[in-house]
Amino acid sequence: MKYSVKSSNPLTHASGCLAVTVYTDGSIGDVAKSVDQATGGVITAAVKRGDIKGKVGESLMIPLIDGIRAHRLLLLGAGDKADECSLVNIKKIGAKLANTLEKSGAADAAVSIEGLNIANRSLADSVTILIEAMEYAAYRFDQLKQKKSSASLKAVTLLCDSRSQANIAQTGVNRGEAIAGGVRLARDLGNLPGNICTPSYLASEARKMQKSHSLKVTVLDEGRMEKLGMGSLLSVSRGSREPAKLIIMEYQGAAKSKAPIVLVGKGLTFDAGGISLKPAPAMDEMKYDMCGGASVLGTLKAVAELGLKINVVGIVPASENLPDGAANKPGDIVTSMAGKTIEILNTDAEGRLILCDALTYARRFKPAAIIDIATLTGACVIALGAHPSGLFSQDDALAEEILEAGNQSGDRAWRMPLWDDYQKQLDSPFADIANIGGKGGGAVIAACFLARFTEDLTWAHLDIAGTAWTQGKNKSATGRPVALLTRFILSRCQ
Ligand code: BES
Ligand code: MN
Ligand code: ZN
Question: How far is residue 410's CA from residue 407's CA, in Å, rounded to a whole number?
Answer without folding.
Answer: 5
